[in-house]
Amino acid sequence: MDNSILHKFQNSVSEVLIRHKSILDIISKYQESCARVNRSIIKAATSCGCIHINAKAQEIPKDISYDELKDFLENHISGDLCDICKDKINEEMGNHLFYLVAICNSLDLDIHEILTKQCKNINTLGKYSLY
Fold it and tell me: CB 3.0–4.6 Å: which of 46, 62, 81, 130 could bond 86 by disulfide?
């Protein structure tokens, strides 16, 4: 492993993960952390109100190309995260990444290698890589 931030993070996770060493514990903590990320985003809209989520069916003109599609789709979010909500979401996403890397460690997978391969696929296949 080199000294990239990903490898440093993966090594750090390996050093500090003691209590939840079983793959079953790690998977359940990973699922829990995903729920906490979702909950923190929802609370930004429902409790704080710094963002608004206005989800509705996407209206896509029939005569546009796939390349133009991104110009017509919305993310349904308006407003900006306040500093408190941004910090909370960052914290929860950091925990989620921790457990993702813990799964990688348990299965002897290299997170840097995974992301490098995924990046290569995206760069090679472009928008068609996510089907």
Answer: 81
